[in-house]
Amino acid sequence: KAWTGDLTVQAFYNTFNKQYPTGAFDTIPGDPEGRNLDQRAFAEVRYEPRLGDIGRLYARAYLDQYRYDGFYPYAESDEYPAYTLHDQWRGTWVGVEPRAVFDLGTLFQVTLGAEARRHLSATLTGEELIAGENEATYLTETPIQTVLSAYGVGELKLGRALMVSVGGRYDYFTLAEVGGTFNPRLA
């Protein structure tokens, strides 16, 4: 993470490799093949200047990446040979999000924002492996989409111990089965 004035640049990478010693999902207990690997990386640029005395702008652009591999070994039975299910997810997406927070007096604050996110790649696969070889593919999807969002929140401070927050967010997903959704907020 590095910053100067109102500009911040940050990046992050994490990897997590976990074995399932307990036989999760009815897999073979203690089998070292039973594991998952999660990897996440992102980079972000933020610009957060004051807007005079009325508020502040929060603007960011980002790049995210996620990778997942899950291996689930199953024992041989009367009906099936020993096999391993391999689930895999790969995704890379970019986005921008401008948000402005306005102080309307000392008791009322309004936040208005928008977000645009685009998947550059997205792949879901599931395979049945026997002796390390792909015997069957049971899942192949590429759910690449764009998400366009707008939101607003008003917060009224009613003393030091009470605040009322009212708002909503509208998200539009380009996946045909999803479309748009509005989510209100009251707290």
Task: Describe what is shown at a glance.
With 187 residues, this protein is mainly beta. The protein is built from no helices and 10 strands.
Overview of this protein structure:
- The chain is mainly β.
- Helix content is 0%, strand content 72%.
- It has strands spanning 2-4, 7-19, 35-47, 55-74, 83-104, 108-130, 133-141, 146-157, 163-173, 179-186.
- Strands 1, 2, 3, 4, 5, 6, 7, 8, 9 and 10 form a ten-stranded antiparallel sheet that branches.
- Strand 8 and strand 9 (163-173) form a beta hairpin.
Mean pLDDT: 93
Distance between the termini: 33 Å
Structural class: mainly beta
Helix content: under 10%
Low-confidence region ranges? none
Tell me about the largest β-sheet.
10 strands, antiparallel
- Nearest-angstrom radius of gyration? 23 Å
**Which H/E pattern describes the elements?**
EEEEEEEEEE
Question: What is the multimeric organization of the chains shown?
Answer: single chain
| Beta-strand fraction estimate | over 45%
- What overall geometry do the principal axes of the alpha carbons give? elongated
Number of helices: 0
Annotation, overall tally of beta strands? 10
